[in-house]
Amino acid sequence: xxxxxxxxxxxxxxxxxxxxxxxxxxxxxxxxxxxxxxxxxxxxxxxxxxxxxxxxxxxxxxxxxxxxxxxxxxxxxxxxxxxxxxxxxxxxxxxxxxxxxxxxxxxxxxxxxxxxxxxxxxxxxxxxxxxxxxxxxxxxxxxxxxxxxxxxxxxxxxxxxxxxxxxx
Length: 168
Ligand SMILES: Cc1cc2nc3c(=O)[nH]c(=O)nc-3n(C[C@H](O)[C@H](O)[C@H](O)COP(=O)(O)O)c2cc1C
What we know:
- A hairpin with a 2-residue loop joins strand 4 and strand 5.
- 23% of the residues lie in helices and 41% in strands.
- The protein is α+β, with helices and mostly antiparallel strands and 168 residues long.
- The protein contains five helices and ten strands, in the order E-H-E-E-E-E-H-E-H-H-E-E-E-H-E.
- The chain has one domain (2-167): Pnp Oxidase, Chain A, CATH 2.30.110.10.
- It binds flavin mononucleotide.
- Flavin mononucleotide (FMN) binds next to strand 3, strand 5 and helix 2.
């Protein structure tokens, strides 16, 4: 494991994110992971921040509300099958970690583990949670992404990056 500054691999982080990354959460003794494709690496409140967008109907949403901490695993190896699986199955019915055969690494600064693989890893504590408001949304974006699922808007969770490192 090699520690990195939060922004050291920013370009690579955003490139990997567009192909898919794992957002892992843990509450009530259950660990779950889901695939994300949208997110933000930034700097707010004089802190390094990773922002994620999670729809209300995701099991991840429930876990994040119970324990507002998460980890992000940006794979540097081909885990496309696992990303597709974790991006379509719901953790409420399926133990996705076991089904994918993932090993977990303990979080160093959070109570949420990380997926063990060749990856850029972030540990985050939620600093701000904000609901997307339909009237404030660009009309074309609303039509494209929310028309078929009204009332299933995203919640933004902005997490302070409390540790960042590369695993092999
Ligand atoms: C490539 C890809 C990217 C995705 N990005 C997001 C995202 O950013 N936010 C979100 O809410 N769902 C996203 N999803 C859908 C969730 O991963 C999917 O609904 C998952 O089954 C939710 O799991 P959960 O119910 O265990 O939380 C994405 C799916 C894929 C395949």
